[in-house]
Amino acid sequence: MSFVKELAGRLAFSASTLSRNVSVTGGMLPHCVSRSVRNHLSSQLQLGSQLQFVRYATKKAASSRTNDYNSKGKRLGLKRAEGSEVKTGQIIFRQRGTKWFPGENASIGRDHTVFALEPGFVRYYRDPFHPERRLIGVALYPDMRLPTSHWQPRLRRFGRLPISDPVEAEKERTRISRKEYYGWLKKEEQMAQRMADKKKGGTQPEQ
Fold first, then answer.
1. Interval 59-89: pLDDT, tens
2. pTM listed for this prediction
3. Are 80 and 92 in contact (CB under 8 A)?
4. Residue 33 and residue 35: Cα distance in Å, rounded?
5. Which domains, and CATH codes, for the chain?
6. Which residues form the signal peptide (predicted)?
């Protein structure tokens, strides 16, 4: 009986590699094996055929193996040096993990890439309120130093230039958008209609 159990265990161990459509009674076992042993092995094979490997929904990106020591580099590190001029969205520093944190006018992506939010000049600095953090920021003009004092407001780019020509300045002062213009026309029509209704109501004879 111990021989039968050992044989059943070995066959059950290798059952996961067999096809689900394999029939035990179809000549796979010799005829000298008894019916009880056949039934036991059949149940073990059916159980083994139901076993499946677990496949997870996510996988790391390409070149994620650790057994290949000649894989290509990931091109990490500094992309723009101190004082370099950058544009909006330009990458400043690529890293694995947050070794450098985003400072003023900068942000960080899902892969810890620090990039510029405003056009300006790169600054690498430390903040006294966060002494353990190394920060990367973008200064709006070349002479600007970071960090800005904790008690002062942050500088923001207004996106406008002063107009020196008085004629152009007057045009800009009186300029309105299309939406504002049509809104003004609608209000004028409503006011004219109200005045007409009032005049019509005042001229009606009393009953």
1. 566 666 666 667 778 899 999 999 999 999 9
2. 0.49
3. yes
4. 7
5. 2-49 (no CATH), 75-185 (2.40.50.100)
6. none
